[in-house]
Amino acid sequence: MNKRTKSAIVYTLLILGSIIMIFPFIWMVSTSLKTPLEVYSLNIIPDNPTFENYRRIFQDTLFGKWFINSLIIAIVTTISVAFFDTLVGYIIAKYKFIGKTIIFIAILSTLMVPTEMLIIPWYLMSSEFGWTDNYWGLLFPGLMTGFGVFLMKQFMESIPDDLLDAARIDGLGEFKIFMKIAIPQVWPAISALCIFTFLSNWNAFLWPLIVIESPEIFTLPVGLSFFASGEFESRWELIMAGATITALPLILVFFLLQRHIIKGITLTGMK
User: Is the pLDDT of residue 268 over 60?
Assistant: First the structure.
């Protein structure tokens, strides 16, 4: 097989893969522009395209409120994870104290427990402290992550101790050394952690579904799910309109930070 044939096969497979990957998104946008009578037709281009579905989800539902709720949850958890996971990873990597290994193993052990198994203790704790059906109930499980601590510890260990000692000799305090010396050295890892945390909390569904009862505090995935839970029918045109708007911030984040996303996947080995 010559080089040209191999290239043709590779490009053909890539094009087919791209079509398979992008087709659901095209179908989603197409369905969002269809009327209820046309939803189950197989044509990609609607006969009578309309933005009525977009108008309805904003005027007839609390979609705008759900969008803001999801944005608040994703931004607050991302900032919290970026700061606290980096700080804990730095302390474990660069300081010697009694019980450090035990603490790190305890943090790592949280990675071995599936999220579904943590739902019950999270809910019992929320009920005990009155955290159900409010923003704090949505936020607290994601404010720190074992994965983030592990990731940042590994990168903090690559910072030379001599660099930190030189900063101490120059008179910097420990917190300033962390902020001004350590963080700039691991900024690519922090960027990757922020991106993955934002995406994960933006798409979170199971925990918000369990802990929230008031429609005013729903997040986007939970709110959209109620369009599909009608007794006699599912409003697919509204679901697709909402899903299209929900996907826009993620697409924007990808185009703005695609260099960091690719680098982050390379750094962390995540797929």
Answer: no
